[in-house]
Design goal:
alpha+beta, 3-stranded mixed sheet, two-stranded antiparallel sheet, 10 helices, about 55% helix, about 15% strand, globular
């Protein structure tokens, strides 16, 4: 996975370096899409207007399709939901925030691709209409979220410090960096399930990823 992390990191870094002057949201999405393509990523990146959002907000969702992957079609789709005109200039902080979301969503789906490829694309879990609790408890999702949580933690602390705190995962889930949780996804997991055998299993998976992820390739 570190090879994928490095490649996605380099794409996001390149886009940020090319967007040092104010850039519009619309152009930033286009530049991100084109840079992934130039770096030989077969990823679909789209934007979708969502009038229920505040006019300065966006969020990124991504999906992996195992059947498409098996058939050598585009397997990962990234959708940027927003309610911006698209012509507003974005500053460096906003560009980094956007690319961080792109990085996190993309590598999460590449983790799913890794899981599916190890099974020769057989029996990859589909989650359409699955209750949220069962979705989060699914082994593939737990592994991918543990991977994402490890990345979030590595943005704010070194791996050894994070591993030492895994024994008190409830306390770790409440830690903040400034006004934000150090790992919003960990906070969501603990907030939903509390402390039980499932979150103990999650903790072990996070620990494993903390040991294997190369922090150099965590985009921040």
């Amino acid at each position: 996975m570190n090879i994928i992390l490095e490649r996605v990191y380099n794409v996001c870094k390149q886009v940020r370096e090319q967007s040092s002057d104010p850039i519009t949201f619309r152009n930033l999405i286009g530049r991100t899409r084109n840079t992934f393509k130039l770096c030989n990523f077969d990823i679909s990146i789209k934007s979708k207007k969502d009038k229920d959002l505040d006019t300065d907000k966006w969020y990124v969702m991504a999906y992996y399709d195992s059947e498409n992957d098996f058939n050598m079609d585009t397997a990962i789709e990234v959708i940027v939901h927003h309610n911006l005109a698209g012509t507003e200039p974005l500053g460096p902080h906003q560009v980094t925030a956007f690319l961080t979301e792109i990085f996190d969503a993309t590598v999460h789906e590449f983790r799913h691709q890794y899981q599916s490829m190890r099974r020769d694309h057989n029996q990859y879990g589909e989650h359409v209409d699955t209750p949220y609790e069962l979705y989060l408890a699914d082994d593939d999702e737990m592994d991918a979220y543990a991977f994402s949580i490890a990345i979030e933690l590595l943005r704010t602390m070194d791996a050894e410090r994070a591993k030492r705190r895994m024994g008190r995962i409830s306390v770790l889930s409440k830690m903040r960096t400034g006004s934000q949780f150090s790992s919003p996804q960990l906070r969501a997991y603990i907030g939903h399930f509390g402390l039980n055998p499932l979150t103990k299993k999650l903790s072990k998976k996070i620990y494993h990823h903390l040991e294997t992820i190369d922090k150099r390739w965590v985009f921040v």
